[in-house]
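Model: Ready when you are.
Researcher: Fold this.
Model:
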Amino acid sequence: MPDDKPTYQDLENEIIKLKIELNIQDEIINTIPNPLFVKNKDFKYTNCNDAFASYLGLPKTKIINSTVYDISPKELADKYYIADCELRDNSENQIYESKVKYANGTLHDIIFHKACLINEKNEFYGIVGIMLDITKRKDAEQALKESEKQLIELNATKDKLFSIIAHDLRTPFNSILGFSELLIGNVKDFEIAKSEKYIGLINSSTKDSLILLENLLKWAQSQTGQIKFKQKRIILSSIIREIIELSNSIAIVKDISLVHNYSDEIEVYADENMLKTVLRNLISNAIKFTKTGGNINISLISEQNQVEISISDNGVGINEETLKKLFDNSTNITSRGTANEKGSGLGLVLCKEFVEKHGGKIWVESEVGKGSDFKFTLPSKKS
């Protein structure tokens, strides 16, 4: 009876044959540019291509016989393990998206395509998977979304500019033209007091138009990123005095007192042009919504690392519904002043943008019929 036991030579030949087959398998999977891996039924890696090892920055010897917990951060390994269990239990192909940490420490967006390995007895004995890096695609999609968002915002800016130019800016110019034509046509017949009244109205309308134009320009520049932000140490009292002098003629026409109570020593670290825009708008608004004979108080409180500036009036006040939308650009809230003055709704939006640019905050406390108190903070030190 012949001996069927394999000889040593037979075993050696089988080993050589297996090695050749494994080498061929490695060569085949290494031709695949995407990372590819094979796991056994215990979810241990049994093979992978060079791309997989390269992405992880590990030699194959460290990957083989390891689990996801050996080569990945735990929060990611948990997700991989759960996905492997679901694939094993359902025995269906699996596609899902996850993050993978590469050798350089960066996290990439990856789509996993995985399938079960089934033996001749229809038993699960492993997983084969391939990874598709979609990071660049997702970055491009995000960049496209940002571009679309910027385009929508620019179009909204353009539409609002045209709307204000067409409506709000026309009103003060019509007033200037109307009053000046009255003066020209009746200069000999008008009494001095009447002429002075019309000249005062022309002056205040002109200043309103100038403020509106400056707000339009600065708002358009802020929306398109053209405003340069340059902080420096500023003595607040000198800036406030300058803005009060510019606003005084409008206040005088309405017989409104501008009272300021602060120290010459208080300083802020701010952009001078932005600070002037904020103060000019808040003081102009206070004058607009204060009745003849009213008072406006400007005060400063120096706190730790910041200064609180307050512009309070005893004017008409603001209702709760309007307060909620006051600094919201999308609502475009405008109200006429006590002397029928008109605004664009941009002033407070600009104030909010410029104050927040400094890391400060702006808010208002108001009661209908009793007045409003607009407050904002600015840093007193370079941060």
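Researcher: Now this one.
Model:
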Amino acid sequence: MSEESFDLVVIGGGPGGYVAAIRAAQLGMNVACVEMRGTLGGTCLNVGCIPSKALLESSEKFEDASHNFAAHGIKAKVELDLSTMLARKDKVVLDLTKGIEGLFKKNKVTYIVGKGEIKAAGQVAVGGKIIKTKNILIATGSDVMKLPGVEIDEKRIVSSTGALTLDKVPAHLIVVGGGVIGLELGSVWRRLGAKVTVVEFLENIGGVMDGEVAKQFQRILEKQGFNFMLGSKVTSADSKGKNIVLNVEPAKGGAASKIEGDVVLVSIGRKPYTEGLGLDKAGVALDNRGRISVDSHFRTNVAGIYAIGDVIAGPMLAHKAEEDGIAAVEGMAGQKTHVDYNLVPGVVYTWPEVASVGKTEEELKAAGANIKVGKFPFMANSRGRSVGQTDGFVKIIADAKTDRVLGVHIIGPHAGTLIAEAVSVMEFGGSSEDIFRTCHAHPTLNEAVKEAALNVLGRAIHI
């Protein structure tokens, strides 16, 4: 066996891994990144965040041209070319993966294609080669969570991966799981002509989303054509016939029913990917949910082995993994680091978008917090009215005594962009007054954030 030696070997080339590798190289480390997929970017870039956003953009344009252009005095005859739409998505992914390879070359990061296995602290095996390293960073991300009784074949019963490559628009797409992935991909295929039914175990969509936002979100999606079966669980799937027949039972018990469609998307969540990493042999401890246990500096119980992203506790989000990765390697370099998971924003890229940061009203009330809430609808926002995007609102929750912002929740146009202002304010411990004392350009959607902040103190101008 030949040997190489590095200061850091990163296992996993997703958002957390490749960003950590580049930052470590910037800090003067000799770095290798091991990735078994054969392309960099991980799930997010290859079969997740990026291709889904490409299809969301294309399908949104298709829906606009089909239904919304007429109001602007534009007459158009629209025809779907699905193969071209999918090819555009693939090119976006290819260009970005090649871009990361270019960044590796620029920063002198060694890219190793293969599956990494930890043999011991300081030793990573890839194929028949042992790589020696001072530190190991595990950034292997997550995998699709399976649903017992429903076998994914990526043709008719698909995960998010298969849902990105369907060669025709389903007549009836059944989405199992009313979270971010299911609602985004359900939106893509609904816009292109599919009937969409979402089966969700909980009594609400969006998971831990603010309750008021979740209710409004469901009403908007239903208006768009979504059908929802809430408080329901899928127990089995029969794919022998022309259609797939799902057996559905009430989550709290009761009589079962059946629902059938030609494509089923299983999107009930993701689980840490730790298979074949050699964690047992290396003595790396896991928690009771199969995640790698780390301290506040991303150190495992084994000296010299670190972990970040979806394989540890915290939000399973690409940008969280990036923050973890940078903090981990800066810590290795002796710098002081910190990542506040309460300030990691979450976004659902449907239309309208949904974005949030901090605590929900339900969480704060359950904790006995004394709060004030300010809201402002996009219906009363000048830019929202002028561009015809008036669904939704901005909601800001602040401490009743100190006015410190504790949570911001937005459902509306470009919510994912608007939330950045709230994250910045909360990062510095800011108040609702800090938001509304800041001059916002007119006419912009951002003014809805300012007005919601004003309304925390009952001072909104335009409602």
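Researcher: Key takeaway?
Model: The longest strand covers residues 129-138.
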